[in-house]
Amino acid sequence: MTEAIDITNLNYRRNTKQILTNVTLQLNPGKIVGLLGENGAGKTTLMRLIAGLAKGEKGTIAVHGQTTAATRRAFVSFSEALQGFRPGDKLSQIRDFYALAYPDFSAKKYLDLITFLQIDDDQKLATLSKGTREKFIIALTLSREAAVYLLDEPFSGIDSMSRKRIISSIIRWKQDSATMVISDHYVSEIAALLDEVVIIKDHTICTHKRSDQIRREFGLGIEAFYESVYEGDISDDQF
Amino acid sequence: MTSFNHLFRVMWRPKFRSMNQLLFFNLLAVVVTMVYQIWRRGFAQLEMISTVTIWGSIFGFVAFVLLARQNEQVVISDTYRLLPTSDTKLYLANLGTSLVALLYVGVIQVILLAVGTAMSGNIIRMWLQLNIHMSAAAWHDLAFYGTSAVLWGIVVALWAWAVITLIHFGTNTISAFLPNVQQRIIKVVLAIILTGVLLRFLTWFAELESKLYAAFTGIASVLEGGVWFDLLGLVVVVIVVATANIVMMHRWVEAKY
C-alpha cells in the first residue's frame, strides 16, 4: 500500500539555521494525525515542505508516491491564510477562485460546510472576525476532495464555540480514505480526534505513536504524554 | 492538476478588476478636465486629444506599476504557489495575464482617443485630411513604425517585469543563505548591487548586439532591419531572464507567510 505521506532523511536549513534534521516519517491513508511541538519547533515548516511551499530541502518527500512539488500539491489541501486575496474580495469570489483553480473542489461540500459553520459568503474578507476567517479557511480546505489535508494551527486565537464547530466539521467532512495532519500546541483541543501523534522536538521527529498505543504503553492521555516528552519525563529509550 | 486555461483565468480576474477600477478613475479625470475646459473656453474651443493622451499616459504608467506589483505579490503568495501546477506555467500565466491586462488598458485608451477625436479632435482631423492621399511608401512607413512601436511596447513591458522579478528573486535567494539578522537592510543592499550588476550586463549585451549586427550587415542598426534585430535581442534577454526567474522560483524562492 502506498503511504499517504512518506518522508525520508529530510533536512532543511534557512538563513544559516538548521530547522529540520533527518526527518523520516510515514503516514498511512485514512488517519488523523496530530503534529505537536512547541512554537518554533518546525511544525509549520514541515507542513510547508510537504505542500511544496518551502524550498531548498534535502531528502525526499512523497505524497501518494508523487515526489515533485507540483504533483504533490494535486493531492494536498493546505489551510492557507488567504493572503493572495484583497481585503475587499467577497467570500463568494474566493470560492469561485477555488472552484476554478482546483479540479477536486466540491461545490456541494463547500455549501454544506459554510451552512454548518454559519458563514455568509456574501461578506467581504476584511469584515470577517478572526474566528469566522478561520472557519472559512477550514471550509475551503475541506471542500476539496483531497487525499491529504494539512491544517496548520486551525484553532489559534478563536473562541470555544468556533473551535467546537471546526472539530465537528473535521469529523463530518473528512473522507475515510483521506489523511489529515493537524498541527497545534494546544493539545487538549484536538486530542480526542487523533489516531496518531507525531511530536517534533529539537528540529526532528522525536516520536510517532498511535493514540491507543500511548494510552496502553505509557498509561497517559495525549496531552500528558506530549508534556512528558517535552519536559524530559519520558526518555528517548522509552520510545 | 490545474490546466493553463484555468490558471490564466484565475490570475486574470483580479488584474481585470483592478484595471477596471483604474480605468474608472482615468475616465473620471478625462470627464472632469473636459467639463473644466468647456467652462473655461466653451464647447467650440474644446480640444480632447491632448487631454485623453496626457491622462492616458499617466494612467497607463500607473497600470504598468500596479501590474508589476501584482506580479510580485502573486509569485510569493501561498494562494497561488499552492496551485497544483508547475512553476513554469505559474510564472508564464502571471506574466501573460499582466500583459493582456496592460493591452486591455491600451485598447481602452485607443477607444477613448477615437471618441475624443470624434468629439473635438480638430488637429487630428486636419492631419488626416492632409495625409489621406499619402503614397504607398508613406503608408508602409506608417504601418512599419506603428507595428514596431506596439511590439517594442510589449517587449519592453515584459522585459521590465522580468527584470523586476529577477531582482526580487535574486535578493530573496541570496538572503536565504545569509544569517537571519537585519534582513531588511541586507535585502535593500542586495537589490542595489543586483540592479547595478544587471545594468552593466544589459549595457554589455546591447553593445554586443550592435557589433554583431554591424558585423553581419556592415551597417549601423538604425534602419528597418536594425529595429527588428534590436527587438530580437530584447526578446532573447526576456527569455533568458524569465528562465532564470523560473529556475530560482523552482529551487529557492519560497512563498511569504
Automatic annotation (TrEMBL), chain A:
Signal peptide: none annotated. Transmembrane segments: none annotated. GO terms for molecular function: ATP binding; ATP hydrolysis activity. Pfam families: ABC_tran (PF00005). Keywords: ATP-binding, Nucleotide-binding. InterPro entries: AAA+_ATPase (IPR003593), ABC_transporter-like_ATP-bd (IPR003439), P-loop_NTPase (IPR027417). PANTHER family: ABC TRANSPORTER, ATP-BINDING PROTEIN (PTHR43158:SF1), SKFA PEPTIDE EXPORT ATP-BINDING PROTEIN SKFE (PTHR43158). This is ABC transporter ATP-binding protein.
UniProtKB/TrEMBL annotation, chain B:
The chain crosses the membrane at residues 21-39, 51-69, 90-123, 143-167, 188-206, 226-248. Keywords: Membrane, Transmembrane, Transmembrane helix. This is Uncharacterized protein. It comes from Levilactobacillus suantsaii. The lineage of its organism: Bacteria, Bacillati, Bacillota, Bacilli, Lactobacillales.
